[in-house]
């Protein structure tokens, strides 16, 4: 059953966005107002100031907002027509632009008033500002943002705020943000030597080091291990395609602004692929299929490319080159449930292995008021969404209703995970697509010898290796489990007399497939141990006189401290068991 949203907290945050606009007008009476939506942890508002605010100005605006809260101002809304709106928002060009657009689209126009301030807004507020805890919100930062997200439009000043139901919740969130700074994947990724960026290569194009590549490949191998057991086959496609492929699939019309385009010397237009599904559809279509061949499951880990705005690029979480662990299932309608449930099982096993114990699902469906954003017909969407809804009911449990979150070609089951800091983010996705198979004429022959349109299921477990790795670094604080760590064991001889036995241990570990760092340098033991801790290596073997004399190994765990002495074979068995179990 659907999970109901927390409307009260949403309304508090939305009301605070209005109060921020009131404070901004007090700071700069000539300010032009943009939009002020709610975010996952608060709100923001976009402004065009005549004088740039500073961090001190932000503090003053926050004080003004608290005064407005304490005045217990009522929030009242009413319907308006376009003519009244033009009078109300005279001198506010951004509001007038929205007003004209909404009126053209036939939307109901509403204005909300608090004190002497009126804003163009669809609603969702507290009835009285006295319902807001005056110590449970905070203005946090100033950023730049283009009006409506386009670099062709004026750049505005965006002010962000946090807001919660109580001061305790705000303090907990602020503590989490401080911890998140320490775990920032950009900071830890550099310290652990996993990836780098180069100005010569370009922003948003990460370069993976040998250590980082180990992590990438192990993650991908794990996904493939789970898929292979369920009948998937690997395929390989090129990184560019003729424009015609995406015109047929429907992507060119809906997605062309986000494509990297290539024009050949002969004048032919190509694109760097932003997704793989149309290519995989061509592999499926290359040979006739009957019901006996169905389902067909293709898997490929490959890069796709999207022309993101430079200001939106951030570490591994927003990049130009995205490595997708992508897969597409071509099946009959009667096979949809079994195929989606098999993917769901993979998602559960994969994320469970990393300790993402709190997971939820979102039913991401289309927005019927903006049907021009989607491929196909309302009837096709009704059938696809009905199939997804039935599956979620059969699987059991609650789900979030994600109106407007569907892909352009079909509804999705999006998986949301909560990390060790309590942050929720989207991870895997399963998408049901009736539209692309129709566009490409993908069919199989049924038992009666008739042509039957196939259905396409899109599924990505990590979604993006870059984004998943960033999340995993922050979730674990860089303390990867043994099987995934680029270096699994550090062998540290205390002095020259211990080199031979330490080297023997290191070689035995390597022979069993472990990734070992053997430190033969004549540095102090303290310096070596500090380096091991900084690199977050799971296990350390220190070799001194006692170890050489006993031919025993003293093992220390990154997470559990000293574990005592082990004979070599017992140590190898202990480590092998942990690595195999992926715990």
Automatic annotation (TrEMBL):
It comes from the Bacteria. It catalyses: tRNA(Thr) + L-threonine + ATP = L-threonyl-tRNA(Thr) + AMP + diphosphate + H(+). Binds 1 zinc ion per subunit. One of its GO terms (biological process) is threonyl-tRNA aminoacylation. Its cofactor is Zn(2+). Residues 215-481 form the Aminoacyl-transfer RNA synthetases class-II family profile domain. Keywords: Aminoacyl-tRNA synthetase, ATP-binding, Cytoplasm, Ligase, Metal-binding, Nucleotide-binding, Protein biosynthesis, RNA-binding, tRNA-binding, Zinc. It is an enzyme of class 6 (ligase). One of its GO terms (molecular function) is ATP binding. Zn(2+) binds at residues 277, 328, 458. Its EC number is 6.1.1.3. CDD domains: ThrRS_anticodon, ThrRS_core. GO terms for cellular component: cytoplasm. InterPro entries: aa-tRNA-synt_IIb, aa-tRNA-synth_II, aa-tRNA-synth_II/BPL/LPL, Anticodon-bd, Anticodon-bd_dom_sf, Thr-tRNA-ligase_IIa, Thr/Ala-tRNA-synth_IIc_edit, ThrRS_anticodon. The keyword RNA-binding applies. SUPFAM superfamilies: Class II aaRS ABD-related, Class II aaRS and biotin synthetases, ThrRS/AlaRS common domain. It is found in: Cytoplasm. Belongs to the class-II aminoacyl-tRNA synthetase family. Homodimer. This is Threonine--tRNA ligase. The gene is thrS.
